[in-house]
Structure prediction request, 389 residues.
Amino acid sequence: MSFAIDYSRQEIGQLLEVLETPCLVLEKSRLIANVARLKRHLRPYGSRLRPHLKTAKSIDVARLVMDGARGPITVSTLREAEYFFSHGVSDLLYAVGIAPNKLDHVFDLRRRGANLAIILDNLETARLVAAKSVERCDPLPVLIEVDTDDHRSGIRSTDPALIAVGRALHAGGAVLRGVLTHAGSSYNLHDQTSFEAMAEQERSGIVAAAAALRAAGLPCPEVSVGSTPTAHFARDLTGVTEVRAGVFMFFDLVMAGIGVCDIGDIALSVLATVIGHQHDKGWIIVDAGWMAMSRDRGTARLAVDQGYGVVCDLAGNPVPDLIMIDANQEHGILAGRPGAQPPALTLPVGAMVRIFPNHACATGAQHDRYYVVDQGRTVSAIWPRIYGW
Prediction:
């Protein structure tokens, strides 16, 4: 499988103003600072970071985040697993409940040398994975997904199904590597006290699940937690072997809106060009619609609704109260924030802006490369990124 992207590199060394828009801009210095911040926070607790690269989808970004050339990392698609493995990253965790139609692909990756583990949360899949492990003569490492916050998937630590799934894997021919949880409901919180409480709920819940498996005579070497808010606000990681987080590398308006970061920490933006005006409505029309920004409206439920994104100048500094209020497929509508004083700004046709996204994962997924800048407007590198499944 090839991941080569055929594009001209003539933009390197040029200013952002020469780029064809819309395109994705990555502020390298902010990326590096964001990574350093989380690693600095986790260091005293002794739990390793297994970064989730579902947001980045780029080996160039991965190399700034990983602690070693081979990982460990987390992925959300087998395409990501293929891509990173093709670049020498071999310690891989596919952290989405495995679908039976993906098992042949998983075993093929392992046959080629990938140390790839999977997750699941039900007895039916556990039995299938164990049987397939025997058939392939390859004991597949599996982590059981545990629900610690009623957010999504997983088995409760007190549910007898946890032990049944563990036994099916361990006795059936797979490898019971441990337990995993994701405190996704932390995205609904808004203050330090709540984040800290959720981080402890996540930790205590997953540690209880590990203890239950061990009490039943089953192995549980790995205890994995992860979400960007709880990773940053954990105050105790006793019993946890690894922490997974992903959007922390770039941050976004949702993370800023709930108080995990400041807007000035956001490393990702979409470069767009003004293509027209609707003066009677106070609209500025740009060539970046929801195909470039995504349909994500994650800030709509927060105290400050940022529309489809916050408008910045070419240096990445937000323009006060100027947001993308609406988006069509290829048209974005910029205007003053509802209820705010209209921004005293003239953006003629041809002017360019950068727009911070609500959700870095969703926005990044629309693009095949990063135009890298470093505290300025000059493109220092072009980093390919993948997408799809």
The chain has a mean pLDDT of 95. The chain is about 30% helix and 20% strand. The first helix runs from residue 28 to 42.
